[in-house]
Amino acid sequence: MSSPADVSVLPAIGLAAARELDTVQTPEDSTLPSATLRGGAYLVGRYGLGVMVSIGNMLVMTWWIGPHAYGVFVTAIGLVAFLATVARGGVDTYLVRHPDAPDQVMYNTATALILSASASLGLLAAAATPLLIRWYGSREFVAPYLVLLLTVPITAFTGVPMAKLERDLNFRSIAGIELSGQTLGLLSAIPLAWAHAGVWAPVAGLAAWQVLTLVAALIAAKLHLRLQWHAAEARRMLAFGIGMTASMRVWQLRTLVNPLLVGRFAGAEGVAFVALALRIAEALGTFRLAAGRMAIAALARLQEQRDEFRTLLERALYLQVITLGPLLCLFAVLGPFVLRHIIGVRWTPSLVVYPFIAAGVLVNSVYNLQASALFVVGKQWTVMGSYTTHVLVLGAATVLLLPHFGIAGYGWAELLACSAYFLIHTGLAGTVPISYRKLIPCVAACAALLFLPAISHNLRSFVAK
To answer: Are 136 and 65 contacting, i.e. CB atoms less than 8 angstroms apart?
Structure first.
């Protein structure tokens, strides 16, 4: 979930995190325990530092460019980020998981395949601009959208050298490159935001981030790539990549709900308010990505020992909830102060939708590791069904509720979409039944605390009337 770890305010988890989710679907990581632990430490460290950079960037963007320009950017990048993940087509995952070390022909073919897909998707997306103008009833997103489309080949192509680094277990370089890219993006955006460049501040920051990441990855991986087409290899890459990452591709569709549907019914500022709430909740829950990635390796080693498998999974779930829940609740309590004194009072509407989104992130933390467990035991299509249902419910509920309840309607849609996780529960229960005895009280208490400030505020307003 989702969400693209980002330079500005990419919806949900951002581009870098999305790439990493693609690479956790198989258990081969378990072959080198010490390397996995070191890699996990680097990932956790990178996520932690990345969150700090992202929060700094979020403060700059929200304070200086304001909700409207921010919403225009999120609308544009939401569409572009999804295209960049689709353009990779799971090819980078194929390179990481291939049983034999990829040769130069394989890397060159992957380069040709990704760049061809990127160019095709970019042209189609540009051609769809008139339809988007009609959908939004506005043209102000067009210029940043078209400029950001130029970054799709850069972002997608980065997957090739990054796959080489990951295959070499060079997580230190990966962490350094991605954190450096985020930092450069922030430093590039700050002067433009201060100069009142509006939406172009985050656009420039994101472009700088992606270019630096690609160049640094190519240098670190020591790859000398060129376009080369090997038809049989290309077919194998697509067959593996599309099948293996299908569930992640479906999950990433949820990142389009805010820019496409919220943008359609609530405008750019509605997109901005929802994006800020998503950004805060996802930033607080970022460690789920590293946890899910390391869980694959640990669970894969125990898949034939079902009692130990279940015990480890239950402990990991409980640890996630008791760590994440208080963080989410803390912002629910401090949110009014933070917005009033740090981010700005004009962002107050984000507090309306934050409790719903935070509750959704908390519930997801119960099921994201269970989804990882289903991948380990070979039930990826169960996850696919759950994610498909989740996206459909989220989209349909947003269309139905947002016109009547404003951005709170999106919040209710997030909660309704959590019902799709029942498919993950039932899918795992048939193999490794999980006990929720310790989880349910914790989740219920945290959910109550998330909504308590909003309920108290509404009661005070009612009494005052």
So the answer is: no
